[in-house]
Amino acid sequence: MTRELATDAPFRQVCDLTELTTTDAETGHYAGIIAPTWTIGPKVHGGTMVAASAAAATRRLTEADPALARMAPIAASSDFLGAPEPGEVEYAVRIRKKGRQICLADADLIQDGRTLVRTAFTFGHLDVDGTRWSGPDTDMPAEPTPDALEYTPDSPMGQVVHVGQVARVFLDASWADFLQGQTGPPRARLWIRPLDGDEADPLVRAAFAMMAADMSPPVPMNLGHFGWSPTVQMTTYLRRIPAPGWLRVIATAREVGERMFDEDQLVLDSTGAVVAQSRQLALIPQPRS
Question: What is the pLDDT of residue 227?
Fold first, then answer.
């Protein structure tokens, strides 16, 4: 597989897959590409890998049974075995169960012959109407405030989080105590919005919401812990297709331990509806010896 590695690729390229020839009738194989802009530092962003794997699993399920095309990946449980480089990747997808209400599939993200991300997907039907009850009650504005910090390529955050080159990302300064050299609760808030071309496609918006559920900086930064915080395990939920416009990401932790911390991320769309959620267990950056 040889495909052009664009430096300004929109998010929909992440979901653009090519079927590969295989002799394994039980497994679908697909080729994809993840551009360098979908990285945190030198490595591919975790939420992007989950969303890309979801695209591969969705395609395999639809090909296996076109009657299931209306189902969506409502839950993803991901284990990160390694950190892929940006560039060409492959996906191997196996359908574990097909049912009217629930389907199950496993997807491996592979690079250079190694499985680096393993995700178990649950497929079901998304919510499309209003809710019976909703807990989130946030005072976070629907759009970036004037004092919000944009992830531009020349900003400190933008130099690390390259996603800001292909999506609009703003950090809520009022929750980012570390920016003032202070400490505070382990939390973060940000706004993110896809480029115009990505926003036009509802399915791309849904995948983008899954990606956004891993967009917050590691919340221990507010406690003075900086550096790489590798994710050990992450579970992502997709609740509904987001309305066009800004997504709000609210990240909090229940406990920051000596070696590990948990982080919950809640994604609201421009109407205030919950569109995605995630919970992950990650390692606290260790001091350099």
Answer: 86
170-196 as b/e, with b when 16 or more CB fall inside 10 Å? bbbeebbbbeeeeeeebbbbbbbbbee
CA angle, 232 then 209 then 151, to 5°: 80
* pTM, full prediction: 0.93
Give pLDDT, residue 5: 46
For domain 11-126+144-283, the question of CATH label 2.40.160.210 is answered with yes
Confidence tier at 183 by pLDDT (50, 70, 90): very high
Helix (H/G/I), strand (E/B), else coil: 54: helix
- At residue 135, the pLDDT reads 80
Quick one: the chain helix, strand, coil %, rounded to 5? 20, 35, 45
Q: Which is more confident, 81 or 134?
A: 81
105 and 92 Cβ atoms separated by less than 8 Å: no
* CA distances to 151, 158, 162, 183 from 155, in Å: 6, 5, 10, 21
Where are the chain's structural domains?
11-126+144-283
State which H helix or E strand residue 212 sits in: helix 202-212
Contacts of 75 (CB under 8 A, 6+ apart): 121, 122, 124, 235, 236, 237, 238
Contact 249, 273 (CB under 8 A): no
- Cβ–Cβ under 8 Å, residues 223 and 57: no
